[in-house]
Backbone:
């Protein structure tokens, strides 16, 4: 039975470090593992790849991979909720054999996006009004641009004067590409592009490290988003001791990072060189993550209608909960292999069948609506299995019918029929090396499946009629033997 194998080499019951190995249709395909810069990657002619809009960040795509009749969809990171600059992920009813989905927020159902935005702006505004500083750790691509647009619009509407900064480097480069590929954003951004490019911010400027100690209120977007290193951690260490300041964590934080620790209420942090940092600033978590939540994952399953489901890029306990929910609601198998484990899914290949026009006419004579010629139609529905011919015959209680080819060859030979059999056997043994040649008790000579029988009439005893019979598998050999025997037998050949 054909099958698809999936082995996470990264992101198996774990968040981050994705690398998925898929074996499908005799091909091994690596997903989400990056590329070798400076090299050209050749795409196999038998692979069919289709991309779907993923909505996670600019240019993000889900992919469907088909080899013959087998197919896999890999989501990567995706977002089923449209935001201020990107649309929602979309996929058609492609019905893959297996859908491999991220599950970062496997047990989370987010509240209203509008409420979150209102709370976010309120907290930033209150902190700035009391003279405090707001640190927003973000990753360079995606949430940084989303929240920049939100604050830029609010600052414009409220005529706010406090400076907003974003860290130079990756975020600055990302903003450049957003300006460049604005046609990949949502409809609202594209419509306003003629009047104004939303990524040309008027109130948001590039940040310099010397601004960290500046007096007065400010808002800073800094990377990375989990406070595990870099500028965001440097600013946090400077501002953590002031109660007027605030840090807003807009996304997921992996266990062990500073971001994860402060979100869990830790007020004293041990840093390198045994230093201790007391956390006095306000800590807020407001999920503006561009990953699908549990509701979004279920929505994608309804859209794609997969035959099997496999979860990656999530925490084991949360994945287990979602796995049970998927199996219960959709009645499909759901897998969640750890790194290095392989999940195997048996596939049921579709077999295209040509139907005669007469059969269609007879079916129509039974009544029913006229078929749409552009759409496939099921005339008779049944559960089909692919089995070997031997197994099918056994289950049906039938005997195999063999199709054999027959050829007559006339041969001049003065010996008796039995001696002619022996002479043919001896001749073929000397000519055909590596073949199974037998002289049976009834005088018949066999070469593989080929049967050779000799007969003659009393009126012409020296004229032998050779009857050659073979199955279609030995057609080439049968043709060769008939040609060989038409040339006659060597005169010196012994009849033993």
Residues:
């Amino acid at each position: 039975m054909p099958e698809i194998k999936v082995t996470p080499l990264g992101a198996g019951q774990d968040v981050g470090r994705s690398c998925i190995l898929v074996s499908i249709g005799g091909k091994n395909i690596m997903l989400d593992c990056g590329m070798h810069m400076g090299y050209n990657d050749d795409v196999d002619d038998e692979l069919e790849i289709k991309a779907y809009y993923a909505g996670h960040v600019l240019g993000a795509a889900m992919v469907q991979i088909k080899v013959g009749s087998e197919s896999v969809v890999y989501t990567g990171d995706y977002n089923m909720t449209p935001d201020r600059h990107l649309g929602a992920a979309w996929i058609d009813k492609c019905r893959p054999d297996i859908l491999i989905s991220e599950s970062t927020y496997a047990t989370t159902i987010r509240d209203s996006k509008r409420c979150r935005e209102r709370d976010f702006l309120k907290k930033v505004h209150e902190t700035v009004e009391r003279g405090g500083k707001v640190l927003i750790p973000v990753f360079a691509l995606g949430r940084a641009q989303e929240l920049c647009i939100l604050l830029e619009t609010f600052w414009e509407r409220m005529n706010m004067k406090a400076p907003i900064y974003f860290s130079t480097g990756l975020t600055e480069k990302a903003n450049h590409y957003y300006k460049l590929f604005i046609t990949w954003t949502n409809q609202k951004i594209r419509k306003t592009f003629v009047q104004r490019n939303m990524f040309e911010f008027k109130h948001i400027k590039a940040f310099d490290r010397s601004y960290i100690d500046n007096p007065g209120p400010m808002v800073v977007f800094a990377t990375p988003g989990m406070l595990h290193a870099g500028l965001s951690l440097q600013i946090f260490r400077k501002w953590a001791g002031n109660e007027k300041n605030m840090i807003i964590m807009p996304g997921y934080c992996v266990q062990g990072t500073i971001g994860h620790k402060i979100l869990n209420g830790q007020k004293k942090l041990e840093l390198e060189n045994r230093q201790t940092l007391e956390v006095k600033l306000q800590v807020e978590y407001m999920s503006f993550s561009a990953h699908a939540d549990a509701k979004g994952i279920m929505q994608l399953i309804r859209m794609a209608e997969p035959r099997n489901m496999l979860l990656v890029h999530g925490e084991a306990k949360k994945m287990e909960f979602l796995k049970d929910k998927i199996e219960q609601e959709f009645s499909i198998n759901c897998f969640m292999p750890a790194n290095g484990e392989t999940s195997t899914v048996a596939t049921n290949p579709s077999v295209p069948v040509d139907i005669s026009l007469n059969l269609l006419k007879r079916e129509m004579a039974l009544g029913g609506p006229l078929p749409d010629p552009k759409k496939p139609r099921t005339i008779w529905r049944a559960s089909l299995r692919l089995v070997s011919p031997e197994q099918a015959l056994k289950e049906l209680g039938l005997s195999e019918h063999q199709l054999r080819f027959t050829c007559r060859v006339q041969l001049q030979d003065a010996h008796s029929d039995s001696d002619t059999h022996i002479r043919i056997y001896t001749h073929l043994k000397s000519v055909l090396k590596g073949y199974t040649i037998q002289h049976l008790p009834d005088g018949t000579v066999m070469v593989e499946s080929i049967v050779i029988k000799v007969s003659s009439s009393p009126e012409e005893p020296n004229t032998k009629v050779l009857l050659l019979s073979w199955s279609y598998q030995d057609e080439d050999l049968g043709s060769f033997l008939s040609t060989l025997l038409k040339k006659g037998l060597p005169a010196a050949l012994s009849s033993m």
